[in-house]
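Hi,

I'm pasting everything inline rather than attaching a file, because the server keeps stripping attachments. The sequence lines come first, and each chain or strand is labelled.
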Amino acid sequence: RKEVEQDPGPFNVPEGATVAFNCTYSNSASQSFFWYRQDCRKEPKLLMSVYSSGNEDGRFTAQLNRASQYISLLIRDSKLSDSATYLCVVTQTGANNLFFGTGTRLTVIP
Amino acid sequence: GAGVSQSPRYKVAKRGQDVALRCDPISGHVSLFWYQQALGQGPEFLTYFQNEAQLDKSGLPSDRFFAERPEGSVSTLKIQRTQQEDSAVYLCASSPEPTGSGYTFGSGTRLTVV
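And the predicted assembly:
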């Protein structure tokens, strides 16, 4: 069983739409949580960290539910430039590396 | 340079050939990681260095994979006797600290084994 599970999509949404991605993680000792963005043929880049209290960065809102081991990302007012793969990422106590989900591919259509 | 630099950008190897992939981390970053990303998948951890010490190599898929960072800066990932299943993008990341924040990834080396 993978450490982080995501729906791979693809999600095709019109400009201006609101879209939500979810992921689940298997290890209850998971420590830190992130969403990364990866453009086609590019490296992953940190989009935002995720906190239990929920956090917002402009049109992006991330939420963590530790009890359900569930992480979400909400994108409001989608732009064409939001088209990318969104990777759910966790760290675990005792390990230095990142654990990545498969990624969810988003295409925003004009 | 300002970022993590990887070379070559692309590598085509014949099955059975040995390859060496290079990573130049951000100057002063103590932690260096290698990840393997197969097509349509997320990156998978291979190995981790803190300075010159290889503290975790649990993700290396076989003994054909070997990594080193002899002076605590540049790192090389070597794959011996390449197989088709080794075809992937190999990503290097560095961090000023061991924790999960502050990672910077390089652009990766796309390895194709034919």
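Chain B touches chain A at residues 31, 33, 35, 40-45, 48, 50, 55-56, 59, 91, 98-101, 103, 105-108 (CB under 8 Å).

If the labels don't parse on your end, tell me and I'll reformat.
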